[in-house]
Fold Reverse transcriptase domain-containing protein.
Amino acid sequence: DDKLPVIIAKDLSVEEKTALIMVLKSHKRAIAWKLFDIKGINLEFCTHKILMEEDFKPAVQHQRRVNLKIHNVIKKEVEKLLDARLTYPISDRWCVCIDYRKLNEATCKDQFPLPFMDQMLERLAGNEYYCFLDGFSSYFKIPIDLKDQEKTTFTYPYGTFAYHRIPFGLCNASGAFQRCMMAIFHDMIEKTLEVFMDDFLVFGNSFQTCLSHLEKMLKRCEDTNLCLN
């Protein structure tokens, strides 16, 4: 197997490092390093809907010219998304440019609140141990409702494609992700971990407590198909 990096505090004892690595190894399905590792969160927890304003008008934007020097770069990136099953080829009479400003203007805004940073820091203060995790392409974990996927359609010189999961650039994406994380970790947030957008922080007043909280979190990730880094 490929060896992939984990950053561990240098002041942990050998026994503590060994215990931490054992927990991480036992929950490898909850950890992602590459796009291919992202499975997509279980539909029962969240599906993103793109609800349109009543007076919206369908908009078509022409494909923009791209410098020939970066054609291959773009092609490789789209192929990477296809290989990871985050996008799929589509043929439809309506297509939206990957610049989602027109779509965002016509989308009903989701006012889901983000946590107050100062209150979060107050809850975290005073703990002895912390474990930081990153959402790693966090939006790509949330499925888009089937009937709304065509609204994410984009074109480039080699075809027309739509997203299975939320792409970067959609309005309401951050609110959708925060809502989904609160649904998944509803019994842990503010008690054993904090979530702010795609940043996750597990805490505890002792190494063993923090490790126990981390293991519980990773188990929840596995149960819901959520992958972190």
Observations:
- The beta strands are 87-89, 129-134, 154-156, 159-163, 193-196, 199-204.
